[in-house]
Amino acid sequence: MSRPLLEIVNLSKSFPVRNAFGFTKTEVRAVKNVSFTIGRGEVYGLAGESGSGKSTVARMIMGLTEPTSGEILLDGENIAGGKHSHGRKVQMVFQNPGSSLNPRRTIGQSIAVPLAAHGQPSADRRRRIAELLDMVQLPAAYAQRYPHELSGGQKQRVAIARALAVMPKLLVLDEPTSALDVSVQARVIDLLVDLGRQLDLTFLFISHDLSLMRNFAQKIGVLYLGEIVETGDTAAVFENPRHDYTRLLLASVPVVSAEEEAMRPAIPLIDGEMPTAEQLLALRLQGQQQNQN
Amino acid sequence: MSDPLLSVRDLWVSFTTYSQTSQVLKGVDLDVPARSQIALVGESGSGKSVTMKAIMGLLRTPPARISRGQIFYDGRDLLAMSERDRVALRGTAMSMIFQDPMTSLNPVFTVGDQLGTILKYADRRLKRPRGRAERIARVHEVLGQVRMRDPERVARSYPIQLSGGMRQRVLIAMALLSEPKLLIADEPGTALDVTTQAQILKLLKDLVVERGLALLMITHNLGVVRETCSHVYVMNQGVVVEQGSTADLFAAPREEYTRSLIAAVPRLTGGTRYGTREAAR
């Protein structure tokens, strides 16, 4: 019972870099020994910038990319071997609903795809589609509409309905609201929280928006260049960030109140400019070496 | 009492498609004093981009129609002047920083070529004599001003050889080439990572202050507004619903719309409860 829903153990992925003749030159290690666990009903936030490997982790959990090494245990079962039977348990909601929905299919047809793929009898599909649309608070009549007739927030609701069609246990959310206005974002997150409670869902929430993550995720892992540099309860990490990269990330968030401003860690400026992550980490390394001498 | 550098008065813009006409701007008033940092904030569809395009003269007419209003720049009405005079101002007296560095730069020319060409035509419009060597020197100078470590190398590079943050710096340099008095920035840094965005915003703010420019920032991000601007205009459905100094507006928003907009922003300090009340029961 106490077993976590998702356990990731020493997960690594390298991509070969080929030269012009197709020979392998070197490798890029996109994900290096990443381990974390997500308990049942939990929201785990994976924070990182572009190139941090967060999308590669998501793709490996979805079975879209095969890991180089490591284990992905879902309900205690290793799914790293590239078997697709776990598609029923894990589903994903993508960043841009405008491009993740087929423009030539009606909403109903889009939602029917996973139903058909997972063997739902066709007689029952219409009822199930209406049920799913109702779950994401859209009228059943929307099944006949096309994506271009819907607003961004509505399209993202459809994407959520489609992901829920096969009754998954884990939902991977890859920047689900970064294309939406803030007020729409709030409503989509409200919906996700409600659904999580009703359907006993577990979320892996991937984002670069730390303010949103603070309020949505219970636990957080910060990815930098393929490694988790800091992990823990969200509140604890935000109030007392230990790694320099986490501090830099927090210091970079544009905020709307004085309380938040007071909470952002102070970052040393380099030549009057905000340092990049590499500069800051190099500076810290220098300081440590000087202390040793 | 000096007039503001840019002043928009009672601007009405409509768009006509097929048989339908929709009123997109309904009497927008906006002032940008010299050396000030002004934000125009709103959600998608609020009309902030149309306002910006009307100011820059980038609206295509038709389908757009400016049915009423004036836009004064330095005391002259932009909407009343000849196309030729208007073009002479664009990119020289007022210039724009675009949002997406990848689509705003031509992938097949070096950064130096592109900046040089822009400068050449700006010089021609303003009838400024400047030789090729001087032009190259000016391009290097501006790349230095946006804190590029090695301007000569950047000028020789193609856009693909630069990082996202460096490309955004190139776009800022592009806007600064002709020493404009007014900079209009459209969602600067939104396409970038948070740490890079923080660097770009800091750079932009420093540049505007040290060079005495006026900045009009168009954005949907309230955090960005608070970090960079001193005065805010909030737009919704084609009208300015509220305006005021950044400190006042964030501390005590008067309008319901502004209040809900600020309330929708998740806080770094936590405390936002997600989930509807019915479900919690």
Summary keywords:
heterodimer; A: 293 residues; alpha/beta; six-stranded mixed beta sheet; four-stranded antiparallel beta sheet; 11 helices; 10 strands; 38% helix; globular; B: 281 residues; Rossmann fold; 12 helices; 40% helix
Topology:
The complex is a heterodimer of chains A (293) and B (281).
Chain A: E1 6-18, E2 24-38, E3 43-47, H1 54-62, E4 69-74, E5 77-78, E6 90-93, H2 97-100, H3 107-117, H4 125-135, H5 152-164, E7 170-174, H6 182-199, E8 202-207, H7 210-216, E9 219-224, E10 227-233, H8 234-239, H9 244-252, H10 258-263, H11 277-292
Parallel strand pairs in A: 3-8, 3-9, 6-7, 7-8
Antiparallel strand pairs in A: 1-2, 1-4, 4-5, 9-10
Helix pairs in contact in A: 3-4, 3-5, 4-5, 5-6
Chain B: E1 6-17, E2 20-32, E3 37-41, H1 48-56, E4 64-73, E5 76-77, H2 83-89, E6 94-97, H3 101-104, H4 111-125, H5 132-145, H6 151-156, H7 164-176, E7 182-186, H8 194-211, E8 214-219, H9 222-228, E9 231-236, E10 239-245, H10 246-251, H11 256-263, H12 277-280
Parallel strand pairs in B: 3-8, 3-9, 6-7, 7-8
Antiparallel strand pairs in B: 1-2, 1-4, 4-5, 9-10
Helix pairs in contact in B: 4-5, 5-7, 7-8
CATH class descriptor name of chain B: Alpha Beta
- Quaternary organisation of the protein chains: heterodimer
Radius of gyration of chain A: 21 Å
Strand order of the largest sheet of chain A: 6-7-8-3-9-10
**Which two chains form the greatest contact, residue counts included?**
A-B, 46 and 41 residues
Helix segment tally of chain A = 11
Counting DSSP E segments of at least 2 residues, the number of strands of chain A comes to: 10
Q: Are there runs of chain A of 5+ residues with pLDDT below 50, and where?
A: none
Calculate the terminal CA-CA distance of chain A, rounded to whole Å: 52 Å
Q: Mean pLDDT of chain A, rounded to whole units?
A: 87
Task: Describe, in plain words, how this protein is organized in 3D.
The complex is a heterodimer of chains A (293) and B (281). Chain A is of the alpha/beta class and 293 residues long. Chain A has 11 helices and 10 strands. Chain A has helices at residues 54-62, 97-100, 107-117, 125-135, 152-164, 182-199, 210-216, 234-239, 244-252, 258-263, 277-292; strands spanning 6-18, 24-38, 43-47, 69-74, 77-78, 90-93, 170-174, 202-207, 219-224, 227-233. In chain A, the strands form 2 sheets. Chain A has a 6-stranded mixed sheet with strand order 6-7-8-3-9-10, sandwiched between helices. Chain A is globular. Chain A starts with 5 loop residues before the first strand and ends with a helix. With 281 residues, chain B is an alpha/beta fold. Chain B has a single domain, classed as Rossmann fold (3-Layer(aba) Sandwich). Chain B is 40% helix and 25% strand. Chain B starts with 5 loop residues before the first strand and ends with a helix. The chains are: A alpha/beta (293), B alpha/beta (281). The A-B interface holds A 49-50, 152, 181-183, 185-186, 189-190, 192-194, 197-198, 208-212, 214-216, 234-235, 238, 248-257, 259-260, 263-264, 271-274, 276-277 and B 43-44, 147, 164-165, 193-199, 201-203, 206, 220-224, 226-227, 250, 260-262, 264-272, 274-276, 279-280.
